[in-house]
Amino acid sequence: MKNGLIGAGIAGALLVGGYMLFNSNENSNSSADNPSLSPSKSDKDCPDFRTQREAQAFFEANGGPSSDPHRLDRDGDGRVCETLP
Fold first, then answer.
1. Is the pTM value of this prediction over 0.85?
2. Of the candidates 39, 79, 40, which has an alpha carbon nearest to the alpha carbon of residue 56?
3. Fewer beta carbons under 10 A from the terminal one: N or C of the chain?
């Protein structure tokens, strides 16, 4: 009887733990909320863009001057990748 209760407790703990893990991963995909971020969330650099206009649009869609996680605006003037065509 004691072994049965211990087994049931372990099984219950595994089920609850699995549910918690699945639930936290399901809600952590922020790229679905912000389609301008790539699914891989990899760091973007100026060579990743074909034109300055494309880089600027990405920059503004992802926070603009108030938030520059990709460090595209090195001089802080609000214009990114100024050497691109």
1. no
2. 79
3. N
